Amino acid sequence: MFDVLSYLLEQYSDLEACPDREDLSRRLAAAGFEAEEIDEALDWVEHLDSEAGDLFAGANEASSLRVYSAGEVEHLPVEVRGLLQFLEDSGGLTPAQRELAIDRLMALPEEDIDVDLAKLVALMVLWSQQSELPILVGEELLAAIHGEPTMQ
């Protein structure tokens, strides 16, 4: 599934640039992805649409500290929670985008979640909302799909 997500990031400028699900499924199959992997990824991506982002819009209005629930602490490694805090502190994610990233991470199997996957999820959230981010933060996130960052 994660390879499909990376492919979408590389091939399409944003979520709206993607063709409809049926056409996109055909294109992904032609690119060599398995049907089950495609369906799983596209189901996951559907939750990134603008309505999903609107669910968390109130988080941008708050000036409070984010406290993780016991289930989130158990599901999300401390390094992932630290990355999300770093991204928010550096202006890479808004509080609403952080909440959407947490939501999408919580939808994934616990054993798959690590910092690189969290970077990919953060990129997917930003990609779906056509958001820009500071260049150094962007380089760090892109390292999750391309290897080491190019800037030093």
Automatic annotation (TrEMBL):
It comes from the Bacteria. InterPro entries: Smg (IPR007456). Belongs to the Smg family. PANTHER family: PROTEIN SMG. HAMAP family: Smg. This is Protein Smg homolog. It comes from Crenobacter luteus. The lineage of its organism: Bacteria, Pseudomonadati, Pseudomonadota, Betaproteobacteria, Neisseriales. The gene is smg.
